[in-house]
From TrEMBL:
Coiled-coil blocks: 80-110
Source organism per UniProt: Natrarchaeobaculum sulfurireducens
Keywords: Coiled coil
Segments of skewed composition (Acidic residues): 128-140
Annotated region described as Disordered, given as residue ranges: 120-140
The name this protein goes by in its record: Uncharacterized protein
Length: 140
């Protein structure tokens, strides 16, 4: 039985290819974990609060941040080891993904604030309306 021999360059090349595949896989998983466009655009809710609650639920990045972290970890390792011949595409995709996750998180925060503010505003407007109705009744 003969034993196969591998040079260090062959093994390093193979490891670099596997590392790039890991980064690409983690990036794909992160994109998949983000909410779908229709999920943040369409609603079956009957009122504004229902729309906001649905949107808030839809604006969950899920495991996207964890997958991005894995991608960045392996990308950084590959860069430091100078394992990637051409990594600009990965670097750009990581930056795009980070920006998208940040945008989703910021939108979620804004919707959360509105989810609290809108019911309070409605209550205030109802109270003002009730006071106005009472004042009209007293004038009669």
């Amino acid at each position: 039985m003969s034993q196969a021999t591998f040079s260090d360059d062959e093994l390093f090349g193979e490891a670099a290819s596997e590392m790039r595949a890991d980064v690409e896989s983690s990036l794909a998983d992160a994109w998949d974990a983000l909410p779908g466009a229709d999920d943040v655009w369409e609603s079956d809710a009957g009122n504004v609060l229902g729309v906001l609650n649905g949107l808030n639920s839809a604006l969950d990045a899920g495991d996207a941040e964890a997958h991005l972290r894995d991608a960045k970890k392996w990308f950084t390792m590959g860069q430091r080891a100078e394992a990637f011949d051409d990594a600009e595409d990965l670097e750009e995709e990581i930056a795009d993904l980070e920006e998208t996750i940040t945008t989703v998180a910021e939108a979620s925060e804004q919707v959360s604030e509105l989810t609290t503010t809108i019911p309070e505003l409605r209550g205030t407007l109802q109270d003002v309306g009730d006071d106005a109705d009472d004042a009209d009744g007293e004038d009669d």
